Amino acid sequence: MRAKQCKHNSRNMKRSGDSEGEKRRKRRKLLQELGDQKIPFLGPSDQGFQQLWNTSYSGLALRKSCLLPAELHGGVHAALLTLRRKGCFLRDLVRVRERDVFTAVSRVLLGEPGHTYSYLDTRLFAIPWHSTDSGIKGLNCCDPDFRAACKALWELNTFFCSDVPQIKKGDRLTHCTKGEAKVKLGEEGDTESKHSEDSKNSDGGDSETRQSEEGDTESKHSEEWDTESKHSEEGCSNQEAEWENEFKQGSEEAGFSNVKPYKFSVSVGSDQSEEEEECSTSALETMSGTETKHMGLAAQEKPVAELKHSLSDYHIEDEEEEFVIGQGCSKSSPPISNIGAANFNVTLLNYMDPSAMSHLKEEPYYGMGKMAVGWHHDENLVSHSPVAVYSYTCHGDKGDSSEGGSAAKSSWRIGLKVAWDIHTPGLILPLESGDCYYMRDDLNSSHQHCVLAGDTARFSSTHRVAECSSGTLTYIQSQCHEALSNLHTDPETGSHSLLALQPTTLQHCEEIHNEVEFEWLRQYWFQGQRYARFCSWWTGPMENLEKDWKLMETMTMLFLATVEEEGQAAEGRREMAEILLSALTDRHQQRQTWRERCHSSLAQTLPPEEAPVDRPFWGVDDPSMPLPFDLADIINRVESLIWRM
């Protein structure tokens, strides 16, 4: 059996290696074809911008800051600054290509109670919205200021749940009053249209690890604007260096549920007054000024459209460098009729100050400027669900609002491109502080987006409909209940025994055992526990999960005793032994990986309150275990037993 398993693993590894090699080959061929050319992109000041938006980026909608209630802006800004002041924005230590890297952006997850979000082998544990003044079920898990900040972001989430479904098909740009549009958008136009050189000192909100010192690669689960580490957060500098080398080489070779309508919601329909239409046109003409004027189609020396059509078969970007910040799971508040998939259940908050970054990567395909977050799709979302993003810029660590600041500052922008397509021009959209944008329909899956850094620090609140089938506390508790239902405890003696010995039942229990340990307990003590000093909501549930885990350890020992019992039929014992060996081998390998992660050189650089914890509640190190055992020794015993059968 052991030989068969090894052969199977070898086949999988070979297949994976072949796949990676093929992706690299395709990427190299694409770079050779592109050579030194840049793909065209259009900004608001370029001719054809509106048509391009309408035809190729119709799933994108912009909600200007002047159309959101002032009360909402005030609450969100105060909340973000409060969380920043308390030190809640932390960099994640994620796993990329079997090594740990810090994300470039700092972040924190808020959402429905008991929800989580996973990306790059890292699970984020959502701090509850605290949507009621009394707290979560009467639990006093954090201070009043913290609860108020969480509640303000819940109100923003509620606004998005109500507002996004109101955007009609065909709506591209929402409107301000004529005066606001000309003043606000005019300023943005004068400052935002600058080339990448103008944003060399740009500050990023939450960018991915790609931009981090350790790497600029963007995680496959990255958020649209995570600039810190997610992608650096989900990227790493080694990956970035590898990508840069390949890029240069290629060029050289080429010659939520139930959310009550927010009281400040603003409906957006197709019926617009003449003044609004005029304002929209004015906004479109003035937004971004000269920033992208020289970067449009006419500026390209060699139109990419002349490239061979066969290139459309290749993705512009190495998918391993995409960092889609995954997304957490959760239930939403009270439903709105016809809200559809806009029930946002979590928000991933990001923060980045570009001036604090050693370097930011240049956008490589279009020449759009400095990237805070590289090209990516947002992942771990309910299929075709929308994403809503709120952008807020400020003056670095002091947290002062950038509104009313120098007009010479370069603003943040979002870039979009059609995935697997080098013929359709890219799109660049300037963002003022307080602007929101929505990605609807299939935009997130069919397109990729990046975040281009401005000259000031930035927060973003990225609201998502996270896919939560296996990412909630309720889910894992039900899994524990299912596994422990096979354990009988004698009420008089306290001794334990297994109720069912069917191989499929035993295998399922061991799978749940591994899931509890590695997807929840290890993840929590690796990084999730860092947030307990801000909000202790997860402390009790994780302690209970640990108790359930210890009972599952007992079940494993009972399973082993059954396998080693001579009275069992040989055929049945062999099948059970193979199931046990597979589960224990996986467990042993994962424990070694987690111990290495906890004691890695990067982990050791973190302050004590943020450092990963290698909990000794398993194995021979823990005297409180009723049946402590050496896992490696048990694996040898089971292997020996199988060979004797």
Automatic annotation (TrEMBL):
One of its GO terms (molecular function) is broad specificity oxidative DNA demethylase activity. Its EC number is 1.14.11.53. The keyword Transport does not apply. It is found in: Cytoplasm; Nucleus speckle. Residues 1-26, 184-254 are annotated as: Disordered. GO terms for biological process: DNA alkylation repair; regulation of multicellular organism growth; RNA repair. Keywords: Cytoplasm, Dioxygenase, Iron, Metal-binding, Nucleus, Oxidoreductase. Its cofactor is Fe(2+). Residues 46-468 form the Alpha-ketoglutarate-dependent dioxygenase FTO catalytic domain. It catalyses: an N(1)-methyladenosine in tRNA + 2-oxoglutarate + O2 = an adenosine in tRNA + formaldehyde + succinate + CO2; N(6)-methyladenosine in U6 snRNA + 2-oxoglutarate + O2 = adenosine in U6 snRNA + formaldehyde + succinate + CO2; an N(6)-methyladenosine in mRNA + 2-oxoglutarate + O2 = an adenosine in mRNA + formaldehyde + succinate + CO2; a 5'-end (N(7)-methyl 5'-triphosphoguanosine)-(N(6),2'-O-dimethyladenosine) in U6 snRNA + 2-oxoglutarate + O2 = a 5'-end (N(7)-methyl 5'-triphosphoguanosine)-(2'-O-methyladenosine) in U6 snRNA + formaldehyde + succinate + CO2. Pfam families: FTO_CTD, FTO_NTD. Residues 1-14 have a biased composition (Basic residues). The keyword Cytoplasm applies. One of its GO terms (cellular component) is nuclear speck. Its main location: cytoplasm. Residues 184-234 have a biased composition (Basic and acidic residues). InterPro entries: AlkB-like_sf, FTO, FTO_C, FTO_C_sf, FTO_cat_dom. Belongs to the fto family. Monomer. May also exist as homodimer. This is Alpha-ketoglutarate-dependent dioxygenase FTO. The lineage of its organism: Eukaryota, Metazoa, Chordata, Craniata, Vertebrata.
